[in-house]
Amino acid sequence: MRQLLLLRHAKSSWNDASMPDRERPLNARGRRAVVAMRHAMRDLGLAPDVVLVSTARRTIETLEALEPWDDTPLVEPMDSLYLADPIQLTAALHGVAETVRSVLLIGHNPGMHDLAVTLAGPRAMRGGGEHERALAAGFPTGALAEFVVAGSWWDLREGGGRLVRFLTPQMLEGTGSS
Predict the structure, then answer these.
(1) Which of 28, 51, 112, 162 is the most buried (most CB within 10 A)?
(2) Average pLDDT of the chain?
(3) Tens of pLDDT along 3-48?
(4) Is the pLDDT of residue 176 over 50?
C-alpha cells in the first residue's frame, strides 16, 4: 500500500497587483494555516518519502513551513506542476519510483481538487462519508487530502485511491489545532 498526500498551497497575498502570479507569497493567514497543518500532519504521522512541489513561490513557502521533518524527504520542485490540470498531476505521479511508499504533492486549484475527486472515483464521491462530502464541497487553500493507493504509481488512475481523510485549515481551527 502506498500513501498519497495532496496539499493545496496555503493562502497567498494579493497585495501587489503588479506581481506575477507565480511570485505571490503566502499571506499571514496562509502562514498560520500551514503551521496548523504541519502540527496535524505530525500528530497523524504523515511523513512523505518524496515531495513533488510546484515551483510557484506560494507552494515553495508552503513546503518550507512544513519543515523541519523528522526524516527529510526527497524534494522535487517541478515547473510542470504550476497550475497543472489532473492529467499533468497524474503524469508527475506516474514518474515516481515504485520503491517510494509515500508522496506529498503540493500544488494549485482547480487541478488539485479535480485530481482528488478523480482518484476517489465517482462511486465514493456519490456514496461517501464525511471526508468525501467535505472534498466534494471544494479544496480550499491549505487543505490536505490523504489517499491510500493499492496499485503502483505508474498505474494510478480514476478511482485508484481510497480517501482516508480530508482536512482544511478551518477544520483544524475548530479543533484548536491552530
Answers:
(1) 112
(2) 94
(3) 999 999 999 999 888 889 999 999 999 999 999 999 999 999 999 9
(4) no
- Residue 102 CB: number of other CB atoms within 10 A? 18
| Residue 175: predicted pLDDT | 53
> Which residues have a Cβ under 8 Å from the Cβ of 103 and sit 6 or more positions away?
2, 3, 4, 5, 48, 49, 50, 51, 52, 93, 96, 153
**Sheet with 144-149, edge to edge strand ranges:** 74-78, 50-54, 102-107, 2-8, 144-149, 161-167
Residue 8, pLDDT score: 98
Contacts of 115 (CB under 8 A, 6+ apart): 6, 86, 89, 90
* Whether 6 contacts 144, CB under 8 Å: yes
| Residue the block writes with cell 475527486 | 117
Pairwise CA distance, residues 124 & 135, whole Å: 11
Question: What pLDDT is attached to residue 178?
Answer: 42
